[in-house]
Amino acid sequence: MFATSGYGRGVEPLLAGVLSGTPAFAPVERFDVSGRRVGVAAAMPGDPVLAEDLAFAASAATGHAGLPAEDLPGTRLLLAVHADPDQARVEPGHRWDRSAAALARRVAAGAGLGDPVRVYTSACVAASTAVADAAALIARGSVDRLVVAGGYLVDADQFALFDAGRAMATDGRVRPFSAGRTGLLLGDGVAAVVLESAEAARARGAAPLARLAGWGRAGDAYHVCQPRPDGAGMARAIGAALDRAGVAASEVGYVNAHGSGTGFSDVSETAALRLAGLAGTPLSSTKALHGQALEASGLLELVLTVAAVRAGQLPVNAGYLGPDEECALDLILDAPRPPKTPYALSLNAAFGGANTALLVEAL
Questions:
Q1: Strand locations in the chain, DSSP E?
Q2: Paired strand residues for 41
Q3: Beta strand extents in 210-293 (DSSP E only)
Q4: Whether the Cβ atoms of residue 79 and residue 149 lie closer than 8 Å to each other
Q5: How many CA atoms lie within 13 A of 71 on its CB side?
Q6: Per residue in 146-200, pLDDT tens?
Q7: How far apart are CA 24 and CA 4, in angstroms?
Q8: Is residue 307 packed enough to be buried (19+ CB in 10 Å), middle (13-18) or exposed (0-12)?
Q9: Residues with Cβ within 8 Å of residue 54, at least 6 apart in sequence
Q10: Which of 13, 10, 46 is nearest to 28 (CA)?
Q11: What are φ and ψ of residue 182, in 5° steps?
Q12: In 3D, which of 292, 290, 282 has the Cα closest to residue 329?
């Protein structure tokens, strides 16, 4: 696996930054924010190019997995991305060249992979949905391995959209499940993982980092933007992941929550965790540190969750000011905790009422 974030390039800087408890948010310099209500994000310096960073991440992940060069053309890509950021600024006749599908082809070619299988544009569950689909394809024997990648770099268009929608934190901090929370903040996120069947990994002598034990998806069918207040959709996604894995809620040692830091979302997610029997499970939302990476969120957070459990340190729920009686959870505060089990859930939700749950067992 590999990840790039506002902390820098690589899983190690990401994990170190998050475990330090120091958020990566800083004044935006990539574009003009002088007319915005909010002016910070967790962005890398300079002007990174999404296609280049995605190809680099995919190559780094396959290198980390020890895949031989001759196996790369037969390994295909699932990509989670909104679109090429420049698509809206080219002539209509050239917009196909800047589409999400065209971007996926450039990324696959840049990483030496086979043709992309599919592109996911379903907002904050895009990457986690791609992981679930990849796992299903492998589990049913359609392929031995796939590369899943996701990318979002903080851009002027999405920044303006969230700012105009008053969704971003006006005090410059994300405060999941906390009293006084005022919203989310955006952050760079580019990540890639190699998913492989156990048989294929054993055959080539690979040492896996984790087992994707279960996955689940469910819809709210409630509102185009607001989550279902009773959390039923998210609870169904969690239940599906646990059932698929044959793991009880009591065996889960950590939840990396969606935890956007917005009023409605955090209350709904708390309700879901209660329904799923996880209200007493150690929990944090790492978005408080690396920001909301939109289409890449599910993968960036999955990579971080695996790295944290393997390192034996569960990240803090940063930005916390005090308890909210509607968000009564076992939040990890003050300092990282050691995990009590190898099982961890990574949760994501998106506009439209989409919910995903990925259950991993760190190895």
A1: 2-5, 8-9, 26-27, 40-41, 76-80, 118-120, 145-152, 189-196, 210-219, 252-256, 283-284, 343-350, 354-362
A2: 26
A3: 210-219, 252-256, 283-284
A4: yes
A5: 17
A6: 999 999 999 999 999 999 999 999 999 999 999 999 999 999 999 999 999 999 9
A7: 12
A8: buried
A9: 79, 81, 103, 107, 110, 149, 151, 190, 192
A10: 46
A11: -125, 0
A12: 282
For 301, the enclosing helix (H) or strand (E) is: helix 297-311
CA pair distance 274, 289, nearest whole angstrom = 25
Q: How far is CA 26 from the centre of its chain?
A: 20
Comparing C-alpha atoms, which of 120, 170, 112 is closest to residue 148? 120
The single-letter DSSP state of residue 353 is T
pLDDT of residue 90: 84
Residue that the structure tokens 């003050």 belong to: 334
Measured distance CA(306)–CA(213) in Å, rounded: 12
Residue range 85-130, pLDDT digits in tens = 778 788 888 888 888 999 999 999 999 999 988 999 999 999 999 9
DSSP assignments along 122-141, one per residue: -GGGHHHHHHHHHHHHHHTT
Facing residues of 150 across strands? 80, 191
b (16+ CB within 10 A) / e for 52-72: ebbbbbbbbbbeebebeeebb
The Cα angle at residue 319 between residues 44 and 277, in degrees rounded to 5 = 110
Cα radius of gyration rounded to whole Å, the chain: 19
